[in-house]
């Protein structure tokens, strides 16, 4: 079994390729249903990633429905590939979403929200381990963003697959998750 980030990235990208659209919808709904169990619903600002369909990411539409049903403030991001930074905006009925050159859906406009205001972040990932370490796409956007959040910000990974025992090449600078939610289970770290 793969144990380093590079191998895990490849392994999970291949596993995702095998998922059908029906699998993705079914598993994404199960992830959203499992989120309900978490003790996070007394917060105000929730950051949600908008999925890259081509990468077969967890469809966060169900998470968005959950948050709007609970009348929460929803925050979405725009990525700057030169600085590897992200700017965050309040998602409202007036927010225009457009795919960037990497097919990432992003807000075109909106009210800016500082990272330090965000209470809960739903984190995209390819793999994670039993200690709460995660493997993303390797660009470092989320590690940088999560260090800009306040220390008590709750970090929740969303994954179609279960945890690996251990990711070998974890760095000091890697930001750990507090939870990871899969279609079958909720992991708490």
TrEMBL record:
Key words, A-Z: ATP-binding, Ligase, Magnesium, Metal-binding, Nucleotide-binding
Reactions performed catalytically: (6S)-5-formyl-5,6,7,8-tetrahydrofolate + ATP = (6R)-5,10-methenyltetrahydrofolate + ADP + phosphate
Gene3D superfamilies registered for this protein in UniProt: NagB/RpiA/CoA transferase-like (3.40.50.10420)
SUPFAM superfamilies documented for this protein: NagB/RpiA/CoA transferase-like (SSF100950)
Family per record: Belongs to the 5-formyltetrahydrofolate cyclo-ligase family.
Taxonomic lineage: Bacteria, Pseudomonadati, Bacteroidota, Flavobacteriia, Flavobacteriales
Lyase keyword on record: no
Cofactor(s) the protein needs: Mg(2+)
Native source organism of the sequence: Flavobacterium azizsancarii
GO molecular function: 5-formyltetrahydrofolate cyclo-ligase activity
Xref: Pfam families: 5-FTHF_cyc-lig
Top-level taxon of origin: Bacteria
Residue ranges crossing the lipid bilayer per the database entry: none
Class of enzymatic activity (EC top level): ligase
E.C. code: 6.3.3.2
Protein name: 5-formyltetrahydrofolate cyclo-ligase
Keyword Magnesium: yes
């Amino acid at each position: 079994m793969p144990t380093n980030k590079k191998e895990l990235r490849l392994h999970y990208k291949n596993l995702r390729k095998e998922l059908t659209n029906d699998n993705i919808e079914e598993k994404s709904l199960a992830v959203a249903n499992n989120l309900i169990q978490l003790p996070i619903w007394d917060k105000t600002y929730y950051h949600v990633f908008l999925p890259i369909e081509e990468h077969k990411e967890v469809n966060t539409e169900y998470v968005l429905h959950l948050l709007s049903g609970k009348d929460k403030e929803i925050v979405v991001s725009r990525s700057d590939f030169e600085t590897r930074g992200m700017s965050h905006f309040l998602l409202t009925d007036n927010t225009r979403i457009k795919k960037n050159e990497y097919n990432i859906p992003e807000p075109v406009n909106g009210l800016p929200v500082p990272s330090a205001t965000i209470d809960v972040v739903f984190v995209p990932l390819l793999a994670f381990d039993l200690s709460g370490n995660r493997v993303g796409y390797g660009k470092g956007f989320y590690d940088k963003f999560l260090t800009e959040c306040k220390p008590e910000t709750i970090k929740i990974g969303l994954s179609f697959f279960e945890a690996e025992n251990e990711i070998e090449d974890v760095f000091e600078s890697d930001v750990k998750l507090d939870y990871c939610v899969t279609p079958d289970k909720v992991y708490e770290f």
